[in-house]
Amino acid sequence: MISNARSNGALVLGIVTCGLALVAGVAAAQSPSSVNIPFETYTLPNGLTVIASIDRTTPTVAVNMWYHVGSKNEVKSRTGFAHLFEHVMFTGSGHVPYGLHDKLTEGVGGSNNGTTSNDRTTYYETVPSNYLESALWIEADRMGFLLDSLDLAKLNAQRDIVKNERRQSVDNQPYGRAGEILAQATYPASHPYSWDVIGSMEDLSAATEEDVKSFFRLYYAPNNAFLAIVGDFDPAQAKAWVQKYFGDIPRGKAITRPAVAPVVLDAERRLVYEDRVQLPRLYVQWPTVGEQHDDRFALDVLGAILAGPRTARLTKALVYDKQSAASVSAGQGTNEDVGDFGMTITPRPGNTLTDLEQAADAVIEKLKAEGPTAEEIQKATAGEELSFVRGLESNLGKALRLSDGAGFHGDPGYFRTEYSKGQSVTAADVKRVANKYLTKGRVVLSIVPMGKLDQASKPGESKKVTDEASGGEGRW
Amino acid sequence: MVIMPMRLAPRTIVSAAALLVVALSFDASARQALDRTKTPPPGKTPDLRVPTWTKASLANGADLIVSEKHDLPLVSFSITFLGGANQFEPAERTGLASITASMMSEGTKTRDGEGLSNALQLLGTSVSTAIGGESGSMSFVSTTGKFGQTMDILADMLLNSTFPADALERLRAQRLVALTQARAQPGAIAGRVFPKVLYGPAHPYGRVATEESIKAVTRDDIVAFQSQYFQPGRALITVVGDVTAAGVKPVVEKALAAWPKAGTRPTFSYPAVPERQKTTIFLVDRPGAAQSTMAIGHPGPPRSTPDYYAMQVMNTMLGGMFQSRLNANIREEKGYSYGVSSAFSYGKGPGPFRTGGDIVGEKTDAALVEFMKELRGILGERPVTDEELQTAKDSLIQRLPGTFASVTAINGALTTLWSQGLPDDYYQQYTKAVAAVTKADVLRVAKKYIDIDRLAIVIVGDRKSIEGPLKATNIAPIAFLDIEGAPKTQ
Questions:
Q1: A211 touches chain B (CB under 8 A)
Q2: pTM to 2 decimals?
Q3: Which one of A90, A178, B125, B274 has the lowest number of neighbouring Cβ atoms within 10 Å?
């Protein structure tokens, strides 16, 4: 799950992977396999990794500053901290008064935003190319001098905004608490992935000014940061500016990363939660693998084979053939250390979650027994070529992808590996991961209208989740 | 797992590596001279590069615009139809246009719905059909090599769709579920109630699909709508990307050879908007809601207004960007919301001016006071500063290059020129027109297009806790509506 600092900033996540050979067509000037993301990377003595990539299509530049810190670096009584901090980063810094950042980005036709996930926090600016130097100056100032201007008043204002973000995206949203409940049920209580990125209201209230400052000193140091610059600029000039503004920011302390253990559920956990919704909805989640495990590629393909287009197996069976569901989705969610495979089913009126769960399980069992067809594999991977080339149109999409590769895999060019691994998934791989991960060790959550606990899937076997037990705000 | 330290040594304790940097800094004196308080000045403003394009007409009457862009092997293709649900949909069939659009993917004379889906998945792309209030389109993006094959499938969908009856029943059932779900979604409730309050049921802008209108749609309606709507006489075909104008025209002509000449451009005449009432709060009760969703506004002018540029500048400072007056006050300073904004929706008719956002429940009254204060401010109580004016103009002007950053963005920019009847040099003129806006213009258009005495204030929230405080603000009388916008007796 990813949270944004600013509701009116659009985050463009371009999917950037390597190209495929292409059949000759209308006026084909080049094939996708001949296009790439050319980049240069180097590391400053203070540990800051810099990645630069030229794209002169439009006179704009994207700057992405990626810090290797997320909600998993929090402790249990201080959840929501990494994300709260992301907001604090927009309140001005030692030499950049509050408001100037927006003026030098959105105020000159660009944009800025930040996002926080379980594993990393990222900040970006897109600007006309003649504003690159000021964008670097801003990022350097909040890395080196944020604490010079931070006080409790600023912290409290951002805390209120984050609470509003939580109300808007979680508490006042039908089914909004699903992600949080699933995470708590999937991971043991002390596991770094057991709490949601947005955090709990209580913990947000408890964070002190000193908590924030300590967090900053440890994690917002150049040795924990990756800076990507993509667009229309002079690379030598950019290098000089990076040296000028970042060069003398001192390296931080060594960071010990949390040890994130893989999760295996030895039995099915069945839950039901009452919400202000009109229709019940079924959520199923299986623990799987993260960025560092190659099974994630086959799990991605498994998701595409199960749900999405009308020929996908669950979609076809439940939405088109039986017409017992209004919608179905399924797919692998990949975090840095571990991941999960999720399935969501919204029924059509007159159909019970119990029946839908059973029907979905039958589809999955059949796939586990037979494996997918060659055509299913081909369809699932064919869209990657187009996604790759389209991702190359966005400076920001490329900057994010290069930083993810550098931060998670130590290689900005990891997108090439990722693409080829995605393209080489076989039917046997998909069959194997379906059998390995889609087991009885899973969480089954029914979200039902208030007072309609009997609408849960297998109501007698499902344990009721209350707001008090799960750290939510509750209803006033 | 590791516990995050809650107390750390100050930053002056640096690691060995950082000390090394300091020791090796031959240019330390130069770096000491670095004055971080000085904002780096911008470089020379880059030239605006507006894409070029060629225009032609097909024998069947459709216009064709081609814009070449060869840096990547990509093509964006669309057929845009002038006019939409507001011009072609009977009032009692609201939702027909949208259902017809979905039915275009349900099968042709030679491919059933699965066959179409399979063929497109193997090409790695998809064709989308959408019909909005005043225009509709069929479109796709493909790699250059897959352009011809995808074009053929789109042509098959356009010309040979069969509209199977069982598909209609499935789509109808899905839409009814979506309507049910919308009743629990505060944003969706406000989105349905606000236009009803502003325009009433007799105006197309006030119509929303209902259970009754969705249930009323028949297959015959769809067949009739399709044959009347998808006609070349009101269509623009746009091809942007890795093609040549000379090369792509025959490909398009061949694929659409069976599309006969028919249709004209619709007229956009709308009934009069109901007379605006005195400012009123319309409260929709959502018991226990943590937030109040607010939509405040009234009808505005059409896109063709000569005041467009001044209005854009005015709205940018009022609620069109992060540091706009509304967001700076209500989100950043007061912390009442995760974000508030304002916008005019420009169309062929009197699209709405709307401001608002999701407000923490207990601050509903306080936020409304601030909304009213900022509206009075832009109406003259708080004069626009030179800096505000400059920032709003810079933001609008320098946003333009991003308008041309991808094949789909260029396609959209060129289609807008055609559908809004704008001149070919519009994007070059835009910069000058925005730059010419003065503080007096901003005040004039604010007064002309924002009427603080005739606002509809729709609030979806917990009546029990917000009614009293709202009443105490004395801003406006309160009327109560149900979630469909119908008046409710106490």
A1: yes
A2: 0.89
A3: B274
